[in-house]
Description:
The protein is an all-alpha fold and 63 residues long. The chain has one domain (3-61). Helices cover 60% and strands 0% of the residues. It is elongated, with a radius of gyration of 16 Å.
Amino acid sequence: MADEELSEEERIQAAYDDHECEFCGEMLPDPGPSFLKHLDESDTCRYLWLRHRPLVQEEAGGS
Protein backbone atom coordinates (compact mmCIF):
# COMPACT_ATOMS: atom_id res chain seq x y z
CA MET A 1 0.00 0.00 0.00
CA ALA A 2 2.93 2.34 0.63
CA ASP A 3 3.90 2.18 -3.07
CA GLU A 4 0.48 3.51 -4.09
CA GLU A 5 0.98 6.56 -1.89
CA LEU A 6 4.11 7.73 -3.73
CA SER A 7 3.71 10.99 -5.59
CA GLU A 8 4.37 11.16 -9.34
CA GLU A 9 7.70 12.88 -8.61
CA GLU A 10 8.75 10.12 -6.20
CA ARG A 11 7.91 7.43 -8.78
CA ILE A 12 9.98 9.25 -11.41
CA GLN A 13 12.89 9.55 -8.95
CA ALA A 14 12.64 5.84 -8.11
CA ALA A 15 12.82 4.98 -11.82
CA TYR A 16 15.77 7.36 -12.23
CA ASP A 17 17.58 5.64 -9.35
CA ASP A 18 17.28 2.24 -11.04
CA HIS A 19 19.49 3.02 -14.03
CA GLU A 20 23.10 2.13 -13.51
CA CYS A 21 25.89 0.76 -15.66
CA GLU A 22 25.91 -3.00 -15.08
CA PHE A 23 29.69 -3.07 -15.51
CA CYS A 24 30.89 -0.29 -13.19
CA GLY A 25 27.74 0.63 -11.21
CA GLU A 26 27.76 4.32 -12.20
CA MET A 27 24.30 5.85 -11.91
CA LEU A 28 22.82 7.07 -15.21
CA PRO A 29 19.77 9.29 -15.81
CA ASP A 30 18.28 6.84 -18.34
CA PRO A 31 19.05 3.45 -19.90
CA GLY A 32 19.29 4.72 -23.49
CA PRO A 33 21.22 7.81 -24.66
CA SER A 34 23.02 8.31 -21.35
CA PHE A 35 24.20 4.69 -21.34
CA LEU A 36 25.54 5.03 -24.90
CA LYS A 37 27.30 8.27 -23.95
CA HIS A 38 28.75 6.51 -20.90
CA LEU A 39 30.06 3.69 -23.14
CA ASP A 40 31.61 6.33 -25.37
CA GLU A 41 33.48 7.83 -22.41
CA SER A 42 34.48 4.59 -20.66
CA ASP A 43 36.76 2.27 -22.62
CA THR A 44 36.48 -0.47 -19.99
CA CYS A 45 32.68 -0.51 -19.94
CA ARG A 46 32.52 -0.35 -23.76
CA TYR A 47 34.88 -3.32 -24.01
CA LEU A 48 32.88 -5.35 -21.49
CA TRP A 49 29.57 -4.39 -23.16
CA LEU A 50 30.82 -5.45 -26.61
CA ARG A 51 32.07 -8.77 -25.22
CA HIS A 52 28.80 -9.39 -23.35
CA ARG A 53 26.51 -8.39 -26.23
CA PRO A 54 26.91 -11.46 -28.53
CA LEU A 55 26.08 -13.73 -25.57
CA VAL A 56 22.83 -11.86 -24.98
CA GLN A 57 21.88 -12.12 -28.66
CA GLU A 58 22.60 -15.87 -28.72
CA GLU A 59 20.39 -16.48 -25.69
CA ALA A 60 17.57 -14.42 -27.22
CA GLY A 61 17.80 -16.29 -30.54
CA GLY A 62 17.29 -19.67 -28.93
CA SER A 63 17.91 -21.73 -32.08
